[in-house]
Amino acid sequence: MLTVILVTQLVVAMLTATTVYAFVRQLDDALPPGVEIPHVEGEKPEVEGPKEPLNILVMGSDTRTGEGNQIDGESGSDGSDTTMLLHVSADRKEAYGVSLPRDAIVDRPDCVDEDGRDVPGADDVMFNTAFSVGGPLCTIQMVETLTGVYVDHFIVLDFHGFKAMVDAVDGVQVCLPKEVDDPEHGIYLPAGTHELTGQQALNYVRERYTLSVTGDIGRMKRQQAFVASMINKVLSANTLSQPTKVRNFLKAVVGSIQVDDELDRVKDLADLAMQFRETGLSNIKFITVPIEEYPLDPNRLQWTTDADRLWKRIIADAPLGRTFSGGSISAAKPPTSESPSTSPDASPDTGASATPEQEEQAETARAEALANGLCA
Fold first, then answer.
1. pLDDT in tens, 241-280
2. Which residue of 106, 324, 352, 372 shows the fewest CB atoms closer than 10 Å?
């Protein structure tokens, strides 16, 4: 889950390369062999310049098999609990992640799974069924077909790996506008600002029944806020500059991920991560693909026509721009601490010179944050 943090954290981890290279070589055996991506278009479009943009599809598996994945009484569906398309600009100055709702209704194309088996497509099905019937490769082929975006790499992380990665950095700060008391799913979290450990963090990013009134939409927003907070902690405080934390983090990573055949050595991951050294926190943002209610089922979603404009920006290696960056969550200032605006009776904190229009916009943003289970 939320494996986009892997790339960013490895940037810092490998800055201490002299202390960990010997250990890294030992870890290569624990990293499963990578899988070749059967691209829909075959060849990647050519671009000018010394570097090319990168698109990395990161997926979180909800499997309950394997060490540390028996997190509840559920069996899981071997589906994709979370999917995010991470775009990295050719100059490595900007990176943005686009959350793809698992409940969005799409037309899933024919695909080929990891075993070379042909998997027939289906119309009007949930997005995450591609992972259930054909694993990450079918998800990639579906994303490429629906968006026209060439996926360079993929990473899949399970529950155990996510928890271990959070614990390796001594927890991640979040802010809950209200208490979570969800006995049906065994999730209990107090209101306020907290440093969550691995299991608590997993509960937080999976909770979608109590914190928000927007269901999966709110859950995606909180996942984005969590990733932003984790990146902020790691890069701002050099959290992984300590050899012990580096070792713990790397062990958590290699034992819990699945990757493509160009990332199946720890050195490959490190080399990729080192390219992110020029990416500033303010230029790491997270958004959700433009969505709306699916007309045939109010409990499902569908991409809007604006999504096509977003895919074109990614293909052209263009920044998000004002249209798509509005409402984004930035790693430079994630919504992870309490403020007076979290109180329903609080007045807008927009400054003495704020215009009525600005005050209205700020109030709308606060209301949206609270609806999604985030502190305003």
1. 666 776 777 777 777 788 999 988 877 877 777 777 778 8
2. 352
Is there a contact between 230 and 166 (Cβ–Cβ < 8 Å)?
Answer: yes
Q: Parallel, antiparallel, or unpaired: how do β-strands 180-182 and 291-294 relate?
A: unpaired
* Model confidence pLDDT, tens digit, residues 160-212: 888 888 888 889 999 999 998 888 778 888 899 999 998 899 989 888 778 88
Tell me the C-alpha distance between 337 and 303, whole Å: 31
Sheet holding 329-330, edge to edge: 257-259, 153-157, 54-61, 80-88, 95-99, 284-288, 329-330
Q: Which two tokens stand for residue 361?
A: 């916009």
Kindly state the helix (H) or strand (E) to which residue 329 belongs, with its residue range. Answer: strand 329-330
* Among 273, 217, 215, residue whose Cα is nearest residue 240: 273
CA pseudo-torsion sign 333, 335, 340, 345? positive
Tell me how far apart the terminal alpha carbons of the chain are, to the nearest angstrom: 25
Residue 115: CA count within 13 A, CB half-sphere: 6
Cα distances from 304 to residues 217, 256, 307, 312, in angstroms, run: 15, 34, 6, 14
Question: Looking at domain 4-338, which CATH architecture does it have?
Answer: 3-Layer(aba) Sandwich (3.40)
Q: Specify the pTM.
A: 0.85
- Among candidates 177, 176, 200, 198, which has minimal Cα distance to 188? 200
DSSP one-letter code for 237: H
Closest CA to 12 of 255, 226, 231: 231
DSSP state at residue 335: S
Domain segments of the chain as ranges: 4-338, 339-376
Residue-wise DSSP of 120-184 = --EEEEETTHHHHHHHHHHHHHHHHHHH-----EEEEE-HHHHHHHHHHTT-EEEEESS-EEETT
DSSP, collapsed to helix, strand or coil, labels residue 72 as coil
Measured N-to-C along each axis, helices 243-254 and 159-168 cross at an angle, to the nearest 10 degrees, of 170
Phi/psi at 284 (5° precision): -110, 110
Partners of 70 in beta bridges: none
